[in-house]
Write a structure and sequence with these properties.
mainly alpha; 13 helices; 283 residues; globular
Length: 283
């Protein structure tokens, strides 16, 4: 039985699209985990969910416009929305959670409406919607351009966290103090908004619009059950997310299950395991 599984996985990796999907999936999981720690600590966990719906709406528009590369529209729209959401908390008329709800529900509805209206351009509307929402096959149909774009964006995200680690730490825990010391907190918030947008757009190819929050949040929450320092949580979250993504994709290959949903289930299992470990350590 084990030998058959190994043979099936080995045969699958002979195909370039499977290797590309695995590489992109690992990179997306790594970037999502780093971002997740910051978002959870800043109590912005659901911003990923809201922005994923915005990205879905933008992708629907890109499909209606027959764009060969939907990144050209989806990324800028998601970036602008990310900046708006991060600054909406300062608006006394529309609070951050209300703005998030408006943007999330509105984008989801508009996206589905556009896909329905322009269904004549696609022979399988339900399949397109399911792929966009749950990422069931999109990770396996990436073009070479999309793969290299994913790699480039992942490098940018990782570089931001490595080069500006202390600034990210300051923005995460005490943005007001950071501004009081003369550091341009708004500039780093803008940088964080750009990172969020890039990770959301990347993650749509792996788990789809509806499951992005799970990919972002679960590794961070799992790491927090065991570790307490910011650096330890970051490292643990990154390792756990990459491990779960890898195992999830391998299970998907063997069992023929949807990639995104399988990865999320492995993340959930990891959360319970780390929760149990945390209880035994008295955390």
């Amino acid at each position: 039985m084990i030998e058959e599984i190994i043979v099936k996985i080995a045969e699958s990796f002979q195909f370039a699209f499977v290797r590309n999907a695995f590489i992109v999936g690992i990179l997306i999981a790594l970037c999502s985990s780093l971002l997740g720690v910051t978002l959870v600590l800043k109590r912005l966990s659901f911003i990923g969910d809201g922005l994923s719906h915005v990205a879905f709406g933008a992708m629907a528009v890109a499909m209606a416009m027959s764009l060969t590369n939907n990144f050209l529209l989806v990324l800028p729209v998601t970036l602008i929305s990310s900046i708006v959401l991060l600054h909406s908390g300062q608006n006394k008329k529309i609070k951050g959670d209300a703005a998030l709800a408006m943007l999330s529900v509105g984008s989801l509805a508009i996206g589905y409406l556009i896909m329905s209206i322009f269904s004549s351009s696609s022979s399988n509307l339900s399949g397109d919607v399911c792929t966009a929402l749950f990422g069931s096959t999109s990770i396996l149909t990436l073009s070479k351009t999309e793969v290299w774009l994913c790699i480039l964006l992942s490098i940018i995200v990782l570089a931001v966290f490595l080069l500006f680690y202390h600034k990210v730490f300051a923005v995460t825990f005490d943005e007001d103090f950071m501004a009081a010391t003369g550091v341009k907190a708004k500039a780093y918030n803008l940088m964080l908004a750009a990172v969020i947008a890039m990770v959301i757009v990347l993650a749509m190819n792996l788990v789809g619009a509806l499951l992005i929050s799970a990919l972002v949040i679960f590794p961070a929450l799992s790491a927090m059950r065991v570790f307490k320092s910011f650096k330890s949580v970051m490292l643990c979250s990154a390792v756990l997310s990459v491990f779960c993504a890898g195992i999830g994709m391998l299970i998907s290959i063997v069992a023929g299950t949807p990639v995104g949903s399988t990865i999320v289930m492995v993340d959930i299992a990891g959360f319970f395991i780390f929760g149990a470990i945390g209880l035994t350590r008295g955390h």
